[in-house]
Amino acid sequence: MSVEVIAEGKDKRVRSNFLKKIPQVYYFLVIVLAGGLILDQFFASGNILSNPTILRNILVRSVALGIVAVGQTFVMIGASIDLSVAYTISLTSVMASLIMQGDPARVPMALGIVLLVGVAVGFINGLLVTKLNVNAFIATLGTGLIIKGVLNGMFSSGSMGSVPKGFQTLGYGSIGPVPYSIILLLAVVLIGWFILSWTKFGSHLYGVGGDILIGRLSGLRTSRVLIIAHIISSLTAVLAGLFIVSRLGAGAPWVGPDGVYDLESVATTVIGGTALSGGRGGVFGTIAGVMIFGVIDTVFNQLGVDTYLKMVIRGAIIILAVASYSVRSKREAA
Amino acid sequence: MTTSVNNPAADKGATFFEIVWEWIRKIPPVYPIFIAVAFGVSQLNPNFATANGLMAFVRRAAPLIILAMGQLFVLASGGFDLSQGSVVTLTIIGSSLIIYNNEEYTYVAIAIMIGLGIVIGLVNGFVVAYLKVPSLIATLGMLLLVKGGGLYWTGGAPKGYLSEAYRFIGRGFFENVPVIGRFPASGIVLLVVGAILVILFHKTNLGKQILAIGDNAQAAKLSGVKVKQIRMIAFMISSVCAIIGGILLGGYGGTSYTAGGDMEMQSVSAAVIGGVLLLGGKGSVYDVAFGALTLEAMVSLLNLLGLPKPYRDAVQGLIIIAAVAYAGLRMKKRD
User: Fold this and answer.
1) Quick check: A248 and A255 in contact, CB under 8 A?
2) B321 and A139 in contact by Cβ < 8 A?
3) Which of A294, A312, A99, A60 has its CA nearest to residue A186?
4) Residue of B nearest to A318 (CA)
5) Mean pLDDT of B80-92
6) Which range marks the domain in which residue B123 is found?
7) What is the pLDDT of residues B20-38, one digit of tens each?
8) Which chain B residues are within 8 Å of A331, Cβ to Cβ?
9) Judged by CB atoms within 8 Å, which residues 154-213 of B form the interface with A?
10) How would residue A2 be classed by pLDDT, with cut points 50, 70 and 90?
11) Would you say A117 and A91 are in contact if contact means Cβ atoms under 8 Å apart?
12) B176 phi, psi to nearest 5 deg
């Protein structure tokens, strides 16, 4: 009998451990999805469930934000932040279409250059944060402003060039029923998860974010870790920019700030359970945060909710989602 | 005892020059920077250095100064208030909707707006202090709530007009003032708000408690500071300042629903140029006011140098990075 009790206890522990491994945000995602479906059934056409295209669009809509948010997760785990991503996206979109000029032969060159620019932006952000000790909020706000100024100064008018038809398949093409864009997002998420969970760099990043002093004292090259995290974040912004330009056909300086990718990627990352103070979190939580935004957008479109009301509800959901688990924390927030 | 430790020059019979040098070293860098920039502006635009030019400059800078001084209260407590810009927009479009060119509604509109500011600030503070949502996220959510709410209220486009009396606050001048000739109405608002904030921050316990929270919230709590209430007050001050700044900006620039723009980023930048330490624990109302003046003067300077508007963003970006990097290096040296 006692054996039975022990076995039962063990079983319970195993199950609760498994449940604990699911980021809390998934419960919220389920609630939002269920609430959305019910609203859709009663107040709209009820198309969301019956029409697989709409379900797929929830994902496609989330691709750009999702990719950036994965990068944002990296820097935020390192207790940093990247507010320059919106303008990095714009820069990528403009540069890619200007270099490609609709010519498929120039695609590899364009890809090479924008990726290098991404590395450079991330490297500068990282240097400012680690070597010059500039608060990450200000450092990346500043580099964002610099990119914004240069972009608007040089490309406010005139032709932006275009991307070749072949490149647009990244945005619109699909393998069977699965769009390339979703494969891209999945690949980014899986690579992000792999780096964070299975590489030395990943565990170093958690260490640096948890307590940079302890990290340094235990022999981590904290600066190098943070610089790499910033480079990863900028590179995801470049990828998102490439995806956006492939859908639009031509770049434009407003695509990044118009999508509010800077603050929204921070919001989705925090909703996904990554602490702003660093050291905790992961990409799976972030991606659930992104999907919550996607579901809300889709449901509101179905219901025909006013654009501005959408903004209000989105704001409320950001606060409520984070509050729903921060409220139990014993630590003071600032 | 402690003073002699902090000031070794005093008890070793230091020379006059050492005492003066010690005193100069303590001047926050924002003042020499401001003087340098203002000197540059006055070289390019001789009108700037006249009483008239300075008063026009004060009128233009007043909204940002008030916003930045309010932002200081939140920054010093270790938080951010990203909702300021959208509160400015709400003030402008809300006031013009309420007033709709009825002179007699002017003060009603102002009263309603300040009431709204108190509510917004208290909600921000409540979400941060009691729901423990980091202020970056809490005020980002509030940004969307206020912006969306304001635009929904007015149907997406500015409606109505601001009355003359309302616009006077932000753009009017009192003529025939002795010595200086004319004095902007917004200058008086600035002086009154500034005086209140200086008293609150430097002369009362509130300022010390805010700094203590920003330095170490846990320690402040253990030594008896009512952390939650103080945080709510800090956010309330920031929002009310944003409302007052919005009233001035609406008067100065008229009805527009992009006026608030990225004012929150500008006020954070101004505070940072004024030597405020992000994540809390250090700051001064005077320095922040001069930080905002410096930012505005820099914009004038870049304007006069004929730099197109987009590049001004880039230069502003460089400046705030440089300001924070400089402060960081200075602190490192002192350690």
Assistant:
1) yes
2) yes
3) A60
4) B141
5) 94
6) 62-334
7) 888 887 888 889 889 999 9
8) 132
9) 156, 213
10) very low
11) yes
12) 55, 35
Gyration radius (Cα) of chain B, Å: 21
| Closest chain B residue to the Cα of A132, Cα to Cα | B325
Count: domains in chain B? 1
- Whether this model's ipTM surpasses 0.95 comes out as no
CA A280 to chain centre: 16
pLDDT at B13: 65
Helices (H), chain B: 2-6, 8-11, 16-25, 30-44, 51-76, 84-99, 106-129, 135-154, 164-171, 185-198, 205-215, 217-222, 227-253, 263-273, 285-304, 309-334
In a domain, B33, yes or no: no
CB pairs under 8 A between A and B: 176
* Nearest-neighbour CA in chain A from B275: distance (Å): 13
Is some CB atom of chain A closer than 8 A to the CB atom of B141?
yes
3-state SS, residue B88: helix
Looking at the domain assignment, is residue B121 inside a domain? yes
| Structural domains in chain A, sorted by start | 24-326 (1.10.3470)
Shortest CA distance to A64 belongs to which of A219, A334, A322, A248? Answer: A248
Of the candidates B64, B76, B83, the residue with the CA atom closest to the CA atom of residue B231? B76
DSSP assignments along A134-196, one per residue: --HHHHHHHHHHHHHHHHHHHHSSS------HHHHHHHH-EETTEEHHHHHHHHHHHHHHHHH
Token pair listed for A120: 């450079």
A24: helix, strand or coil = coil
Q: What's the CA gap between A57 and A50, in Å, rounded? A: 13
Beta bridge partners of B181: B177
pTM exceeds cut of 0.90:
no
Beta bridge partners of B183: B174
CA distance A127 to chain B (A): 11
Q: Do B314 and A148 touch (CB under 8 A)?
A: yes
CA-wise closest residue to A231 among A76, A147, A122: A122
Q: Is residue B308 part of a domain?
A: yes
CA dihedral (A186, A187, A189, A192) in degrees, to 10, reads: 170
Q: Quick: pLDDT tens for A245-261.
A: 998 888 888 888 888 89
For the stretch B7-34, what's the b/e string if a residue is b when 16 or more beta carbons lie within 10 angstroms of its beta carbon? eeeeeeeeeeeeeeeeeeeeeeebeebb
Query: B interface mutation test: which of A261, A326, A328, A331 has the most B CBs within 10 A?
Result: A326
Residue B50 lies in a domain: no
